Known about the structure:
By secondary structure, the first copy, chain A, is of the alpha+beta class. Chain A is 40% helix and 11% strand. Chain A has helices at 10-16, 44-51, 54-64, 81-94, 112-118, 122-126; strands spanning 70-71, 97-102, 105-110. In chain A, strands 1-3-2 form a 3-stranded antiparallel beta sheet. The radius of gyration of chain A is 14 Å and the shape is globular. Chain A starts with 9 loop residues before the first helix and ends in a 5-residue tail after the last helix. Chain A binds chain B through residues 44-46, 48-49, 51-54, 57, 119-122, 124-126, 128, and chain B through 44-46, 48-49, 51-54, 57, 119-122, 124-126, 128.
Amino acid sequence: xxxxxxxxxxxxxxVLGEAARVPEDGxxxxxxxxxxxxxxxxxxxDVLHALSDPVRLRVVRVLASENGGRxxxxxxxxxxxxxxxxxxxxxxxxxxxxxWDEGTQRLNRLRRDDLEARFPGLLEAVTPxxx
Amino acid sequence: xxxxxxxxxxxxxxVLGEAARVPEDGxxxxxxxxxxxxxxxxxxxDVLHALSDPVRLRVVRVLASENGGRxxxxxxxxxxxxxxxxxxxxxxxxxxxxxWDEGTQRLNRLRRDDLEARFPGLLEAVTPxxx
Lengths: 131, 131
């Protein structure tokens, strides 16, 4: 399989341990995606649980309104850094967000396409304000 | 206010302690609706939490496929009666289902209209098989 296969996703690259590169669709390049379930392994119950907390729902709504990666410290959450880290982790483990490190920052991005593919309409129902 | 006011809902009747009667829309008559949040008080986080459990999601999907009230013992849940009672209670407290007693049975009904009014598309997203 060629490393330029357009069907390979950033997650595939991470799993395969390849060097980071900018995907052709222009999304931010995950230098190294942190472990998260593949699309097919995302469970509705886990996603709903991840979304059932006000802080995590706020993170998702912020991410739903933008396309790039957003650094952990920039959500304006009224909680300690360690608590925020926990919440990001819950979202990532459920398959709601991707996380990756760039330099000293940990970036977050909503797995919009994966969620829409698995549970059509769910994101729109829980982020009524946003895109 | 006349007791035949068509704008009064079964919940209004329960709150007002009136005798049960069949509403004009043909829905089952709650002899006495158990306490549950009014439509405007239903919180998305609570609904998502209520739906984040496999047993509760199964109950909701069964209820989503029918219109009448279904007795607690008839869902075929692989859990004890007391555990099931707990799960129904979580769903009711979150505003996902109504419960009421008729004779020796406790009946359950999805609050479809309330949920759709508060969070359009959510029920459809979590009950892809059903109505």
